[in-house]
Amino acid sequence: PEIELQAQELVHSKPSILKYWDEKKQVLDKEKDEAFWKKLCIERFMWIRERVNHSFDKWEPKDFAELSDHNRIFGPSKTDDPQRHYSDKTFKDPYFSEVKKHKSFHEYSDKMTWLELFAKLDFEEFLDVFPAMDNFKYLYDYMHAVKDKIKCLFLKMQYKRKLKSGYYYYMVILTNMTGVESLIISDTENRFGSAYKYLVKGFNNFNENGGSLKKLFLHQVYTSYGSFGMYRILKNFPDLEAIQTHNSNLNDETCKAIGKILSDNKRIKELDLSNTIYYDQMAKEIADGLMRAKALEVLKLTNNTSLYNGISPMLYNLAFSPKIKFIDLSNCNIGSNANVCEALYKLLKISGSMEHLVMNNCGQLTGLTQDFFIALGENKTLVSLHIDTTTRYTADFAGKLGKACAMNSKKKGSLNALSCKGGFDANTLNNFVKSMYISEQDHEYWYGDQVTANK
């Protein structure tokens, strides 16, 4: 059969929201019947059925929506297995893994309904095959049925295939789906440049029609293909609270645009540029914006191996941020980088709000001077420090770390969790423990007068 017929058959062969939608009356049958929509989710989606029937945990619509987005972005993994999840939760302390998931913006509410879940999954699967159908009536009917029920939309950039109007349909979607608060743009097929002008027009219409986007997620987007830059898109989101990228490539203009949004938008709470390619000079543009981002609570820069000195101005500017709580630098080039290590010291010394600092697999951290550990010892707000590694700590590092933890306790700090997976052997662990036996003289050396301490 022709591909159009295959696509139509695929859409018609499954339970869909259109079967219960009256386009003339603009009414959805069984809209208030949650039991019905839960049953339909279980019938339509096998992966939901498996977890409802076999999981030890009670999964809610919010959990399924998050898993769907996760699998579309990262692909399914063994860690998603319900039995494994139950075992980890039952027999392991999940504290550190839960801390690393920390976020300030949540795409889905705990009150998300089964109808909202079905609308999201059904519409996103429809969009996967729409370019092969070239039937805009289906698209408009779908949007009318779901537009007030989808808060987070996964928008896949894909080849236009049978669409005579090319990538125009992206403008149509963005113009009409004004209820969306969180948008994931995924460009695994490298179509961002081809669709760019329609995206810009669509986002302009989205804003003019009363849309209020709270989070933008760029997945595998090469922003240099946007002929007139990302700012033309970002300026349409005055209510933006979170920006996230993954496996994306940011050009200089995009970093300037992000910096400007951070500076101008007083609501930005979260910036996640993990697994993203950009360079030191570009990072400076973002750092300039962070200086004025007074509402920022979360910064994630994991797996950014293209950065070297670009991290340090970001950290230094955030040291003065009144609300920053969580920073994750895992798998970044920190190790012996004196500039970054000095910025970390200043962050702990100056910040009055930091709660979680994650620096897993950042090398031996030999660049951290005694000043860093002194600042750690007197910091009042830090709750957890994560420094997992694949190389053993030196005896000197272990000793300073132990003393800093003891000092933090003595000075009534908040530090109560330390993750050091892979860092200790028997000797360095012994050195760490011994160093926790501190005296008043030790305290005087670090926080008082060394002349007095020597008497």
Structural key phrases:
ten-stranded parallel beta sheet; 12 strands; 20 helices; 9% strand; repeat; two-stranded antiparallel ribbon; alpha/beta; 46% helix; 455 residues
- How much of the polypeptide forms β-strand, as a percent range? 5-15%
Helix content: 40-55%
| Number of separate strands | 12
Count of individual helical segments = 20
Q: What sort of overall outline do the alpha carbons produce when their principal axes are compared?
A: elongated
- Uncertain stretches of 5 or more adjacent residues: none
Assembly form of the protein? single chain
Based on helices, strands and strand pairing, what is the structural class? Answer: alpha/beta
Strands side by side in the biggest sheet: 3-4-5-6-7-8-9-10-11-12
**Main sheet, how many strands, which sense, barrel?**
10 strands, parallel
Could you tell me the mean pLDDT?
92
Give the N-to-C terminal Cα separation: 93 Å
Q: In angstroms, what is the radius of gyration?
A: 25 Å
Protein described:
- It is a single chain.
- The chain is α/β, with parallel strands linked by helices and 455 residues long.
- The protein has a domain at 353-455.
- Helices cover 46% and strands 9% of the residues.
- The chain has 20 helices and 12 strands.
- The protein has helices at 3-12, 34-44, 46-54, 61-74, 82-91, 95-100, 114-129, 136-146, 168-176, 192-208, 231-234, 252-264, 280-290, 311-318, 338-350, 370-378, 395-410, 426-435, 440-447, 450-454; strands spanning 21-22, 27-28, 152-156, 182-186, 215-219, 242-246, 270-272, 298-300, 326-328, 356-358, 384-386, 417-419.
- A 10-stranded parallel beta sheet has the order 3-4-5-6-7-8-9-10-11-12. The chain has a two-stranded antiparallel sheet with strand order 1-2.
- Helix 10 links the parallel strand 4 and strand 5.
- The model has no long low-confidence stretch (mean pLDDT 92).
